[in-house]
Amino acid sequence: MEQFLFQFFNLDIMVQAWPIMLRGFGMTLLLCAVVIPMGLAGGLLVAIASTAPQRWIRWPTAVLVDLFRAVPPLALLIFISAGLPFAGIRLSPFTAVCLSFLLNNSAYYGEIYRAGIDSIGTGQTEAARSTGLNSLQAMAYVVLPQAVRNVLPDLVSNTIEVVKLTSLASVVAFAELLYSADMARSITYNASPIVMAAGFYLVLLWPAVRLASRLERKLST
Where, if anywhere, are coiled coils annotated (predicted)? Predict the structure, then answer.
């Protein structure tokens, strides 16, 4: 037990690693503050395109959604960060992470939005149009508010997954939380910084997990 505590819950090492872990946590928060709004906005555009009456808009959108949902986000990130330089396109680690998350998350958020839009009957749109609203206004003022409410638990759950996926940024040497923890582990030869990183994620995500559960119960009633 003493050896276990020394390797995984070494308070001295945790104190020494605290500054670098705190910086990594700050970079994770910055990354979340960028990629989550981008994914939500991109997903909304994807959902609107997916429900457009024009086939030449719907079909390419469906193909792209299937493509980016099928490609693993890690493979997409490595392609953007390590593959595009062969075509003369060099991106910073932060930009590469944001771009890969935009493509991947827009596809998932878009499907969630689309499910919400499909849950609203066509009568809502027709009633909105009868009041003088055009198609875009009916979507923005009548359909989308109801659709978002219907899929709000799914949006929160997917956002939790996005936060956890930010740890993939460590692959391209972006100094987020997991990368910082791994650097501290390699210096101290101790797993306590990894345990600290897990604790940071727990503190960050536990309220969101409880919120998602509460929204699901509220929607079910």
Answer: none
Instruction: Write down the CATH superfamily of domain 2-220.
Output: MetI-like (1.10.3720.10)
Q: What are the tens digits of pLDDT across the range 8-52?
A: 888 888 888 899 999 999 999 999 999 999 999 999 999 999 888
**Residue 132 reports pLDDT greater than 80:** no
Distances in whole angstroms, Cα of residue 30 to Cα of each of 48, 74, 82, 214? 28, 20, 23, 27
**Angstrom distances, CA of residue 4 to CA of 176, 182, 185, 186, 201:** 27, 19, 15, 18, 22
Higher pLDDT: 220 or 107? It is: 107
Task: Give the DSSP letter of residue 146.
Answer: H
Task: Using DSSP, state whether 51 is helix, strand or coil.
Answer: coil
**Contact at 8 Å (CB) between 76 and 35?**
no
